[in-house]
Amino acid sequence: MDLFIHQLFTGLSNGAIYASMALAIVMIFRTTNLKNFAQGEMAMFSAFIAWWMLGLGVPYWIAFFITIAVSFVIGVLAERILIRPVMNAPLLSILIVFFGIFVILHSLAGWIFGYEVKVFPSPFPEEAVFGTYITNHELGTIAIVGAMLLAIYAFLNFTKTGLAMRGVAENQASCKLVGINVNWMLGLGWGLAAAIGAVAGMLIAPVVYLDPSMMSGVLIYGFAGAILGGIDNPWGAVVGSLILGVVENLLGTYVIETELRLSVALVLIIAILLIRPNGIFGRTIVSRV
Amino acid sequence: MDTILQTRDLHASYGAVEAIHGINISVANGGITALLGANGAGKTTTLRSICQTVSTRGEIEFEGERIDGLSTEAIVRAGIAHVPDGRGTFLGLSVEENLRLGAYTRIDTQNIARDFDRMYDYFPRLKERRTQQAGTLSGGEQQMLAIARALMSHPRLLLLDEPSFGLAPIIVQELFRIMQEINVDRGVSMLLVEQNAKLALDVADTAFLMETGEIVTSGDAAIVKEDETVRRAYLGY
Ligand SMILES: Nc1ncnc2c1ncn2[C@@H]1O[C@H](COP(=O)(O)OP(=O)(O)OP(=O)(O)O)[C@@H](O)[C@H]1O
Ligand SMILES: [Mg+2]
């Protein structure tokens, strides 16, 4: 029983990381219909920025929040400088830009910080508060991601800018007609996605260790969680990712070998998508035509 | 009556294809101007030109200031609201959220609550469906929502693209009555594009008739109504 509870929490903690990546992906997908597969490398690079600051002796939480802010700015600039010029170009050109971001961040991180695997500290103390049920880092991850999700929910639902962002996801032409600067909203979406990814990167780095390839597996789970929950629905994507994290971890513990977890999880997802093509919570706008 | 909107030699094109070829139209301050014409004449394009959602050449003057070359957002802030062709509803947002987006450019936030009440007075059906997803509204309700959303920005000029389209005659009557009320009570000038020429000429003071991207007839609505070609082509008597 103890093992089960522990694995459940580990799954939830992993799921929280996948959920962050999924939310970042959905943020950009909803406003641009693009799946940013460089999202993982952006998160990895953010984790390196944090690691670099920690190495300089910056206290953890200060480094944490500076990294979020810097990542936000990088996200906004990426949209402005790299994505916007190709927004109306053929899909292939956009994919090449994404691929470019992916490769540049990957090799830049390797070139500046080195390819060897590094230890990244957890901000939470070692001695477990809840015994064998949950490690402090898992608990901390769940708490931080939970707080972040609440903040984003509040932003989207209770602020004017948040409402405008949801408007941009619905109908950009109408947004212009009510006076919204759509370009700024797209930039803001990229900035938020990068900031969310930064949190995920910093929280997963102590678990998977820091190196330029650390996010490749995580990103696949993020996409899988988003697609499972519904890639056009941020909260569906979050729930989908949590389910994925738990199911994957329990399967790995009780049913199959750890190496097969990802494959089995993906097979399950495909099975679910056959029944619900838009994901479990995929949004269907009711509309009379 | 002075003029709130004036275009001079206005051209508009989609890519390389020019859709309107140098038109001059005007809207009187506080008045309703009708813009009539057959399908494809360029009515929608004219409204899009005023909001700069299509590329244009020529002058557009609003309240004495040139607005051609401004961004669409800036034009909305200047006081023009557009009820577009197809209504432009935010289908997945609630009725109230649609209206709140309409007020996006407002800086006098303390008055917005009062304007919600006003819109619900004009359109009681919207009040009943306040929290409902806008995509579930009927066509008539969505048209009311589109007009209310546009009014939430406190415009001085309202551009309306075929508000009667697809609506039952009784709803159209109600809608036009409310539009006239808004025009009189709130002094909102209107540029009204309509297929239904009779309806438009009944509420408008001035009318312009478009054909293949050019203005062919214009003048007092009452006079245009009696015009031979207009009668035969658009009024059917
Ligand atoms: N998005 C577009 N891209 C290219 N051409 C367009 C576009 N929209 C309109 N046109 C062309 O511009 C011309 C004028 O169209 P417009 O929509 O302004 O006419 P309209 O008078 O509003 O017609 P309707 O009564 O059918 O709404 C037409 O020849 C049309 O084919
Ligand atoms: Mg039209």
Q: Any key phrases for this structure?
A:
heterodimer, A: about 290 residues, mainly alpha, globular, disordered C terminus, B: about 240 residues, alpha/beta, Rossmann fold, 2 domains, 6-stranded mixed β-sheet, 5-stranded antiparallel β-sheet, binds adenosine-5'-triphosphate, binds magnesium ion
In short:
The complex is a heterodimer of chains A (289) and B (237). With 289 residues, chain A is an all-alpha fold.
Question: What is the radius of gyration of chain B computed over CA atoms, rounded to a whole number of angstroms?
Answer: 17 Å
CATH class of the largest domain in chain B: Alpha Beta
Largest interface: A-B, 22 and 31 residues
Annotated CATH homologous superfamily of the largest domain in chain B? P-loop containing nucleotide triphosphate hydrolases
Category by helix and strand content of chain A: mainly alpha
The CATH topology label of the largest domain in chain B is: Rossmann fold
The residue ranges of chain B in which pLDDT falls below 50 over 5 or more consecutive positions are none
Number of domains of chain A: 1
Gross CATH architecture of the largest domain in chain B: 3-Layer(aba) Sandwich
Count the E strands of chain A. 0
| CA-atom Rg of chain A in angstroms | 19 Å
> First CA to last CA of chain B: what distance?
32 Å
Total DSSP helices of chain A = 11
* Order of helical and strand elements of chain B: EEEEHEEHEHHHHEHEHEEHH
Summarize the structure in words:
The complex is a heterodimer of chains A (289) and B (237). Chain A is an all-alpha fold. Chain A has one domain. Chain A has 11 helices and no strands. The longest helix of chain A is centred in the first third of the chain and has 31 residues, at 2-32. Residues 285-289 of chain A have low confidence and may be disordered. Chain B has helices at 43-51, 72-78, 95-102, 112-122, 124-128, 139-151, 169-186, 197-203, 221-226, 228-235; strands at 3-14, 17-23, 26-28, 32-37, 55-62, 65-66, 80-83, 157-161, 189-194, 206-211, 214-220. Chain B is 39% helix and 28% strand. Chain B has 237 residues and is α/β, with parallel strands linked by helices. Chain B folds into 2 domains: 3-79 and 155-235, Rossmann fold, CATH 3.40.50.300; 91-153, no CATH class. Chain B is globular. In chain B, helix 3 packs parallel to helix 6 (139-151). Chain B is built from 10 helices and 11 strands. In chain B, strand 10 and strand 11 (214-220) form a beta hairpin. The two termini of chain B are 32 Å apart. Chains A and B meet through helix 6 and helix 7 of A and helix 2, helix 3 and helix 6 of B.
